[in-house]
Structure formats: structure tokens, C-alpha cells
Amino acid sequence: MEISIKTTWLAALYRIEKQARGTSAEDRLALDHAKSAPKILVFKTWLDHARTQVSAKSPTGDTLKYIAK
């Protein structure tokens, strides 16, 4: 996942959150499950793969470890 793709992905999550504003807790939860969860799963898959590609002791590895928490 390149920087532009990650930025687009993050913007998509913010659009979903904006769409959920002002709705009930149940509606927000349903929207999160329907729209946000699949996007987060894709990111987690990318993150897990990226962590296998760099040394855990490198600055990048340390950053990826922090993000994974």
C-alpha cells in the first residue's frame, strides 16, 4: 500500500465517520460494521505483511509495531 493509497484509505474512513455523525449509537455501530470494518481489515492485513518485510529493530519496524498496538 503506497502513501497515496493509505491517504485515500484514511480519507474514506473519515467520510464514513462524517456520515455517521448525528445518528443514533445503533446506526453508527451498523455503519461501522458495514463500511469501516472491511477497510480496517484490509489495513490490518497490509500492516501485518509490512511488519514481516522490515526488521523489528529498525525505525520503520518500530513505527509499524507502534501502529499495530
Topology:
Blueprint lengths: L2 H18 L4 H29 L5 H10 L1
Helix pairs in contact: 1-2, 2-3
Explain what this protein looks like in three dimensions.
- The structure is a single chain.
- The chain is an all-alpha fold.
- Helices cover 83% and strands 0% of the residues.
- It is built from three helices and no strands.
- The protein has helices spanning 3-20, 25-53, 59-68.
- Helix 1 packs antiparallel against helix 2.
- The longest helix is centred in the middle third of the chain and has 29 residues, at 25-53.
- It is elongated, with a radius of gyration of 15 Å.
- The model has no long low-confidence stretch (mean pLDDT 89).
> From the alpha-carbon coordinates, what is the Rg to the nearest angstrom?
15 Å
Largest sheet: none
Unreliable residue runs:
none
Tell me what portion of residues adopts beta-strand conformation. Answer: under 5%
**Which bin fits the share of residues in helices?**
over 70%
Report the strand count.
Answer: 0
Number of helices: 3
Instruction: Note the gap between the termini.
Output: 19 Å
Nearest-integer average pLDDT? 89
Structural class: mainly alpha
Helix and strand string, N-terminal first?
A: HHH
**Form type:** elongated
